[in-house]
Write a structure and sequence with these properties.
C-type_lectin-like; disordered N terminus; binds 2-acetamido-2-deoxy-beta-D-glucopyranose; C-type lectin domain-containing protein; mainly beta; 7-stranded antiparallel β-sheet; CTDL_fold
Length: 552
């Protein structure tokens, strides 16, 4: 039985790409986060702090640990399963400055993680970004509200000792804090107009929030969001109108890390005309007009844009749109997805297994190629994928209760950046450590309903390289590339065009001797390719495309 000798390399297909390759997918195998003080640490309502962990692969082992109190729990999840992991109430940070109450998630295959911090009617969510998306520089904009001084940031360290610096203005000296593995540090931030700058020697996660921001009916509630490092900022933002969020008192916060010109906004915006630029570290706060039209912001340098209400929600710049997203609906809310899609592509959007019905109403965003639409997700708790077959889209996930006393918001979790027409299905690479000729390898993959892998783009090369990174045990492996016997031209089994290649120096060499292609399993040489005689026996790489839509 061939399984005895094969090593299943559970596909890191959607895990982050190695450095030098920027990925905006929210899936990964390592995460850190923390739980901000909600209303007040002494508030009598019992907190329910939890993580919603969604698996994309079968037999995914997930561990959740909190070092400070030896909290440790382990689960095994199946593709399409979302597990709710409840955390002990002491996980909530009070007003500590440095603590070890950091929640650490590790998994054997990529998962997506949403954090839910609830107490009484105060509830908020944030996407927990995988460690590979973290950065070493962040800017945090607080808001000019009467409670401005209560805005907090929590800086969360990963596994190595780290020094972080926090500076409120360019003139004052930064405050430096040394953090041990998985420690976090909490700071109050200064009121605007200047953003607070956070830098670190090694990547950190940064949460920004307020324990009790005013809502309707004399209530208040927590808002928070995990921030994007400056390396993930962008220059074009499509801002749906406040009517589509069904929310009043919406505020936008725009932050620049360096001098930036702004353009393309509505005339009613304060910075069209007179204020068309932002200085370095400057913050701009805008009230979103109650019945305004959708609009866009275009910046000459990357900026960050956040929305207050519903919850605190980061805007996704067009540069980091994705083709496949995961949505959550939470109990106790009317839940919605707000979609931003190229106007020419609005008929290719799917929810679960089906295309969206034609009854969805799209509104053109003036001055851009985009339209936006609101899709109700009901009020039962569930997860669903939303995707586009051949375009990247922006998706926000939010919810409100009927009287507006609670709301949450976050960008939907990105499961896959590049569109591939697969409705979010997840494929698996497999390195078979059994030596076979190229044609026997081909037969072997077929028998297992897969195919020798076709590496027709730099993205696939990176994914394969990453999947193999830890598992290699041989010097090279066949892939699905061989010369045509008639023309001598190289052909992929997938029939993708042969444009991209990674031949080693001097390769592919003699066309009569070397007719089949193998990948060198050497990270030091970037998994470059070599051509060999097809009769040589080598291990090989099969690729099985996903068969089920996860989260239908
Ligand atoms: C995952 O496991 C379930 C239950 O055993 C099975 O029905 C399904 O086919 C498996 N999916 C994949 C992609 O292996
Ligand atoms: C933490 O708070 C204590 C008491 O307010 C203070 O003495 C200490 O300097 C703070 N530490 C940091 C790292 O800010
Ligand atoms: C989870 O924890 C178990 C027991 O400590 C360990 O053997 C396993 O490697 C861990 N798995 C992951 C994915 O961290
Ligand atoms: C907006 O609120 C009104 C009532 O105020 C409600 O009828 C409507 O369904 C809500 N729409 C959305 C998108 O929340
Ligand atoms: C708002 O509605 C919730 C139920 O959705 C209810 O429990 C709460 O009492 C209401 N609050 C006010 C101030 O009406
Ligand atoms: C690596 O190869 C050796 C010999 O070829 C074999 O004994 C060993 O089990 C392999 N290891 C893995 C992880 O496949």
């Amino acid at each position: 039985m061939w399984l005895c000798c094969s090593l299943r390399v559970t596909a890191l297909l959607f895990a982050a790409l190695p450095s030098g390759f920027s990925s905006h997918e929210s899936t990964g195998t390592e995460f850190v986060t923390a739980f901000l003080e909600n209303m007040a640490y002494y508030h009598p309502s019992p907190p329910t702090h939890r993580l919603l962990i969604s698996a994309l692969y079968n037999r995914t082992q997930v561990n959740v640990t909190i070092k400070e109190m030896d909290f440790d729990t382990s689960r095994v999840l199946w593709v399409g399963q979302t597990e709710e992991v409840a955390l002990p109430r002491w996980v909530e940070l009070g007003r500590s400055n440095v603590s070890s109450r950091t929640v650490h998630v590790s998994s054997s295959s990529p998962v997506a993680v949403l954090s839910v911090n609830a107490k009484g009617s105060s509830i908020e969510t944030s996407v927990v970004q995988p460690v590979q998306n973290l950065g070493t520089e962040y800017f945090v904009a607080s808001l000019a509200t009467p409670t401005a001084s209560s805005y907090r940031i929590v800086i969360i360290n990963t596994q190595s000792a780290n020094t972080v610096k926090v500076s409120h203005s360019s003139s004052a000296p930064p405050v430096a804090v040394t953090l041990g593995p998985y420690q976090n540090a909490q700071f109050q931030i200064e009121p605007p107009p200047t953003a607070t700058r956070v830098t670190a020697d090694h990547p950190v996660a940064v949460l920004f929030g307020h324990p009790c921001i005013d809502r309707t009916e004399c209530t208040c509630g927590l808002v928070f969001e995990q921030l994007s490092p400056t390396g993930s900022w962008g220059t074009l933002f499509i801002v749906p109108p406040s009517s589509s969020w069904n929310n009043t008192n919406q505020l936008l916060l725009l932050t620049a890390s360096e001098s930036t010109n702004l353009e393309g906004v509505l005339p009613s915006m304060p910075f069209s005309g007179s204020q068309s630029s932002l200085n370095s570290q400057e913050v701009l706060q805008l009230n979103l007009a109650p019945a305004g039209s959708p609009f866009h912001i275009k910046a000459s340098r990357p900026v960050s844009l956040m929305l207050l209400n519903p919850g605190l929600t980061s805007f996704t710049p067009e540069e980091t749109f994705s083709s496949c997203h995961l949505l959550h609906a939470l109990s106790g809310f009317s839940n919605y997805a707000l979609l931003v899609v190229r106007t020419a592509h609005t008929d290719g959007v799917g929810l679960g297994e089906e295309l969206l019905p034609a009854s969805v109403t799209w509104t053109q965003v003036d001055g851009t190629e985009y339209s936006q639409a609101l899709v109700p997700l009901g009020s039962e708790p569930m997860q669903r994928v939303v995707w586009h077959k051949d375009s990247k889209i922006g998706v926000y996930n939010f919810g409100e209760n009927t009287n507006g006393t609670k709301s949450y918001g976050h960008p939907a979790l990105s499961l896959k950046v590049e569109p591939d027409g697969s409705k979010c299905k997840v494929g698996v690479f497999e390195l078979v450590q059994e030596e076979k000729s190229w044609s026997d390898a081909l037969q072997h993959c077929w028998a297992a309903s897969s195919q020798l892998v076709s590496i027709s783009s730099p993205e696939i090369q990176q994914r394969v390289a990453q999947a193999l990174g830890e598992a290699r045990n041989s010097s090279m492996a066949w892939m699905g590339l061989r010369r045509s016997l008639l023309s001598g031209a190289w052909r992929w089994l997938s029939r993708d065009p042969v444009g991209f290649s990674r031949w080693a120096g001097g390769e592919p060499g003699d066309p009569l001797q070397n007719q089949c292609a193998a990948m060198l399993l050497e990270p030091e040489r970037n998994f470059i390719w070599t051509a060999k005689s097809c009769c040589q026996t080598l291990p090989f790489i099969c690729f099985q495309s996903g068969s089920e839509v996860p989260f239908p």
